[in-house]
Write a structure and sequence with these properties.
Layout: H1 3-21, E1 26-28, E2 35-38, H2 39-42, E3 45-50, E4 64-68, E5 71-76, E6 82-87, E7 92-96, E8 111-115, E9 120-125, E10 130-135, E11 141-146, E12 149-156, E13 161-169, E14 175-182, E15 187-190, H3 198-202, E16 209-212, E17 215-220, E18 225-230, E19 235-242, H4 250-254, H5 258-263, E20 272-280, E21 284-291, E22 293-303, E23 309-316, E24 329-331, E25 334-339, H6 353-361, E26 369-374
Parallel strand pairs: 1-19, 2-23
Antiparallel strand pairs: 3-26, 4-5, 5-6, 6-7, 8-9, 9-10, 10-11, 12-13, 13-14, 14-15, 16-17, 17-18, 18-19, 20-21, 21-22, 22-23, 24-25, 25-26
Length: 375
């Protein structure tokens, strides 16, 4: 007598689980329509901000930019292993450069976030399982806490809640997934409605989380990439991205075998994954995504009102053949990329007055230049 009710309950649970995984608004992207474009032709606004850095500060190769309280935190993960902070005008504020094995030192910065209420910078050193906290802007070491977990990514949502993507427990090797922590580094809730198979976790790199003022978004990698809006109370699916024949089928995302997941990239059309640096508002969404191989990123924008989508295979500056690399971060719906003055010919860019002015400002020190562009 109770079996039909049990079956109905099971179906309802499955249905609800699916609805949380895929948003009501699904955007279909046709990667075959990708074309090159000049940034001046597609962006509503483009501005250049030269970095003003002291002579003894070396930026290295910027990997990721995060913005908090009108500061830009420029992360060089692989070369200098530093975080360089500048203000909105590009002026130097401070630099975290504490490589070593002593108190307050790290081997690498694999992820970081900023507590605006406490004015504290928190980094994660995956090699040592350490969360290290510094005061800001003094960068005085405040605390080091070891957590025996392999963290892929994290973001401080507010003064009480952290969003943490944990690949596995370092002791048991158990798959962990997406979690909500409190500010004492304690687990509050396992977010089981988000798929936590190896593929989704492995591709949850730092730039899958972006922040627009106080709103945090996470581009959750799966067959359909779902953009979640995060806060301490909920993880709300806003938009799901469907790359059609270029997406990796669900069966590969569900596998626990890393080799089997990698095999998906060799089958059929080039695969499009790793949605990053999402800029989202009520009218538009823009982001970059890996297409085919790790060195190839496409820029995608979608108008949520008109349903028009633009896929850019290569983004260039007018007056030069130099392509702009993928965005390193987002601030207030605006994508941020970085260019290096030594890469440009003064004569070739003469017709680009904004760029010429920025290069002239940086002619002496050859510091990088930030490009802000809103689609």
């Amino acid at each position: 007598m109770h079996k039909p009710l049990l079956l109905l309950s099971t179906l309802l649970l499955l249905c609800c689980g699916k609805s949380k995984q895929i948003a009501e608004e699904v955007v279909a992207i046709d990667m075959a329509k990708a074309v090159p474009a000049f940034i001046e032709d597609i962006a509503a606004h483009v501005s250049y901000v030269p970095l003003n850095l002291p002579e003894d500060i070396y930026l290295g190769v910027a990997y990721h930019i995060k913005t908090y309280d009108n500061y830009l935190f420029i992360h060089d993960q692989y070369q200098t292993k530093t975080i360089t902070v500048v203000d909105a005008s590009g002026n130097f504020v401070t630099q975290l450069n504490s490589i070593g094995g002593g108190p307050g030192e790290y081997e690498n910065i694999d992820a970081f976030s900023f507590d605006s209420a406490k004015k504290e910078l928190v980094i994660y050193d995956r090699n040592n399982f350490n969360f290290i906290t510094y005061s800001f802007p003094e960068l005085k070491h405040l605390n080091t806490l070891r957590k025996d977990e392999y963290i892929m990514n994290f973001e401080i949502l507010d003064s009480k809640h952290w969003f943490v993507i944990t690949e596995s427990d370092a002791i048991t090797s158990n798959n962990e997934g997406m979690q909500l922590w409190n500010n004492n580094y304690e687990l509050v809730n396992k977010l089981t409605h988000m798929t936590s198979k190896p593929g989704s976790l492995e591709i949850s790199y730092p730039n899958t989380i972006s922040r627009t003022q106080n709103t945090v978004y996470y581009a959750h990698p799966h067959e359909y990439t779902t953009i979640y809006q995060l806060d301490g109370n909920a993880q709300t699916p806003k938009i799901s991205i469907d790359f059609g024949p270029n997406k990796i089928p669900s069966k590969y995302w569900e596998t626990l075998d890393a080799n089997e997941f990698e095999e998906a990239f060799t089958k059929g059309l080039p695969k499009t994954v790793w949605v990053q640096n999402v800029a989202l508002n009520t009218k538009k969404i823009s982001f970059w995504a890996m297409h085919g191989d790790i060195d190839t990123k496409y820029l995608i924008s979608h108008n949520r009102d008109t349903k028009q989508t633009r896929v850019i295979s290569e983004l260039k500056l007018k007056g030069t053949d130099m392509p702009i690399t993928e965005a390193l971060g987002v601030v207030n719906q605006t994508q941020i990329s970085l260019i290096y003055p030594e890469e440009f010919d003064d004569i070739a860019i003469a017709e680009n007055q904004k760029l010429s002015k920025a290069l002239l400002q940086n002619k002496e020190n050859l510091n990088p230049i930030l490009i802000f562009y809103q689609l």
